[in-house]
Amino acid sequence: MLLDLTGVQLSFGGLYALRDFSLSVGEGEMVGLIGPNGAGKTTTFNVISGLYPPSKGVVRFRDQDLTGCPAHEMAARGIARTFQNIRLFDRLTVLENVQVASHWRRGYRLWDAAFRNSRFAEAEQGSDEEAEALLATFGLYERKHERATSLPYGEQRRLEIARALASKPSLLLLDEPAAGMNPAEITALIALIARIREEFGISILLIEHHMHLVMGICQRIAVLDFGVKIAEGTPDEIRTNTRVIEAYLGEPVENERRQ
């Protein structure tokens, strides 16, 4: 397993956001994480990415115990994420937003940057080329010198994913990437996510409320409700799972049938 969460627990003021939660993601696997609002999905991402240390349980990545490691260390280990609400650097250009994510990999020292020597120049050129290649992949190359916040909403979403990929992760966490998109944009996003997994050879853990997106591209799906995992399985198994249906409908399925 690339990622393995075991018995993870997290509470805020006595209220459990996650309780005894376990989940694994294999190499090259596409896994969906779904559930009603407030189920604990984004909290799970915050634990994996190092924003919240769990109060109990273990987070293992590439068979190393990284429980409680800070976000910058998780990123350096190969975990990248997007956010439910777009978080671009609004004063930077499209190109600069992508370059920022690769800064830690450039390998030059403060001395090199201060004197702009050959080592600095070579690293910056390589960064430019990598960022431009990513923007071309995401259809944003022609807009590389525009401010990031001038892009239409759907393109800002794509830029955020491109920025996450610039850190060259082995695990990509996508938090509701289709939020706010129209049907045409969602269809294009489905193709893009599938392409990312194939071309970049990475694992993807996806939070999404658009069920046809999750069911269409995920190999396995886990379902959270009030911080507890109530089901896990293939899309077909989840689609017909009684507990999952109850969690979304808010009442037992038997009651629905009697009506």
Explain this structure to me?
The chain is built from 11 helices and 10 strands. Residues 255-259 have low confidence and may be disordered. The protein has 2 domains: 1-78 and 169-259, P-loop containing nucleotide triphosphate hydrolases (Rossmann fold, 3-Layer(aba) Sandwich), CATH 3.40.50; 90-167, no CATH class. Helix 3 (94-101) packs across helix 5, helix 3 runs parallel beside helix 6 (153-166) and helix 5 (118-137) crosses helix 6. It has helices at residues 41-48, 71-77, 94-101, 110-115, 118-137, 153-166, 183-200, 211-217, 235-239, 242-249, 253-258; strands spanning 3-12, 15-25, 30-34, 56-61, 64-65, 79-81, 171-175, 203-207, 220-225, 228-233. It has 259 residues and is α/β, with parallel strands linked by helices. The strands form 2 sheets. Strands 6-7-8-3-9-10 form a 6-stranded mixed sheet, with helices on both faces.
Keyphrases for this structure?
259 residues; Rossmann fold; four-stranded antiparallel sheet; six-stranded mixed sheet; alpha/beta; 10 strands; 2 domains
Helix and strand pattern:
EEEHEEHEHHHHEHEHEEHHH
Helical fraction = 40-55%
Provide the domain count: 2
First and last CA, distance: 44 Å
Q: Please, what is the average pLDDT?
A: 89
Instruction: Kindly report the oligomeric state of this protein.
Output: single chain
- Largest β-sheet summary: 6 strands, mixed
Please list the strands of the largest sheet in the order they lie side by side. 6-7-8-3-9-10
Question: Which value, in Å, is the CA radius of gyration?
Answer: 20 Å
The count of helical stretches stands at 11
Specify the CATH class of the largest domain. Answer: Alpha Beta
For the secondary structure, the number of strands is 10
Q: Which descriptor suits the 3D outline? A: globular
Fourth-tier CATH superfamily name of the largest domain: P-loop containing nucleotide triphosphate hydrolases
- List segments where confidence is low: pLDDT < 50 over at least 5 consecutive residues: 255-259
At the third CATH level, what is the topology name of the largest domain? Rossmann fold
Please identify the structural class as seen in this structure.
Answer: alpha/beta
What percentage of the residues does DSSP assign to strands (E)?
15-25%
Do you know the CATH architecture of the largest domain? 3-Layer(aba) Sandwich
